[in-house]
Design a protein that fits this description.
With about 70 residues, this protein is an alpha+beta fold. The strands form two sheets. The chain has a two-stranded antiparallel sheet. Strands 2-4 form a two-stranded parallel ribbon. α1 crosses α3. The chain is globular and about 35 Å long.
């Protein structure tokens, strides 16, 4: 486990799935503060985020929007 900046992990997860959401012409918006850190296993965190994002893409209509906010 390590201390990670949440925004960086979320951006990395989104970018790794770009083919999935760009094919459906889905817009992903992020509203995440830069100064949020958590102590977590980064690999597990990425796995959870990718699963949530893939589910959002799967159930989002074409030309839809997915918004991720964290304060």
């Amino acid at each position: 486990q390590e201390i990670i900046r949440v925004k960086e992990v979320i951006e990395k997860s989104i970018n790794s799935l770009k083919n999935n959401w760009s094919e459906k012409e889905i817009e992903i918006r992020l509203d995440i503060k830069d100064d949020i850190f958590i102590y977590v296993d980064q690999n597990n965190m990425e796995l959870v985020l990718k699963n949530l994002i893939l589910n959002s893409i799967k159930y989002c209509n074409g030309d839809g929007k997915i918004e991720i906010r964290l304060e």
